[in-house]
Amino acid sequence: MKNNPTTDLPGWGEMPKRPGLYLSLSHGRDFPQQILKKQGFAGPKIGPLLYMKTLYAQLVTLRFANLRDAKRFFPDATLVVNTLDVVEGTLVFGDKCYGNWDVCFIAEEFCLRR
Asked: Which pTM does this prediction carry?
């Protein structure tokens, strides 16, 4: 399944609208072997999630609370559980590769209200 993130996703340095567990992507590049002079570009914060797990450092599984949230990040999703591949040490999301990813909990008091 190809994932195509939308443009309204909370970025790495931004706070999301809702509290919860997020996968925050950074050090982005267009392909795994791309040589970067700096740290690369920031990616989105994916969530809120119920859980995230990594299988043998090759596959990252994300479990959303509902299908609406899953579809925000994985428009073709039919399930609340979706996966991301790890390719040559980078996590692939939206046809981009990220060399750094963090799991963080965003408390309600830090969320953006719009």
From this structure: 0.85
